[in-house]
Amino acid sequence: MIEVNNLSFARGNTLIYKNINFKLRPGELLLIQGANGVGKTTLLSNIVNFIDQLDGNITYNNLVIDNYIASKHFLYIGETNFAHDSLTLNQKY
Q1: CB–CB of 15/8 below 8 Å?
Q2: CA atoms of 39 and 32, how far apart (whole Å)
């Protein structure tokens, strides 16, 4: 289970979001939607420990998410291609 408690994030002096709370249990899905620039990717980046939150905590199965837990249990695929431009999803490199 992923649990987010009172999560807040600021970029510089701009508060992006404040006091986000949710639990995501095994088998559940979470839809995050909104206009460009409102913090969707930032929230996901907080959850997978790419960036530090301003306040609050995020846990996975009651463990604080650090780089080790994030690398073992999460797969984050962003909007840019980080791999091989010439390969499809079915091909191996």
Answers
A1: yes
A2: 10
> Structure pTM?
0.77
Structural domains in the chain (count):
1
The phi, psi pair for 71, rounded to 5°, reads -70, -25
Kindly report, residue by residue over 58-93, the tens digit of the pLDDT: 999 999 999 899 989 988 777 665 556 666 667 665
What sign results for the dihedral spanned by CA atoms 77, 82, 85, 86?
A: negative
Q: Is residue 33 part of a domain?
A: yes
Within a domain: residue 55?
yes
d(CA 20, CA 8): 7
Cross-strand partners of 17: 9
**Which of 51, 67, 73, 49 has the alpha carbon at shortest distance from 1?**
73
Q: What are phi and psi of 44, to 5 degrees?
A: -65, -40
Question: Which H or E run contains 73?
Answer: helix 67-73
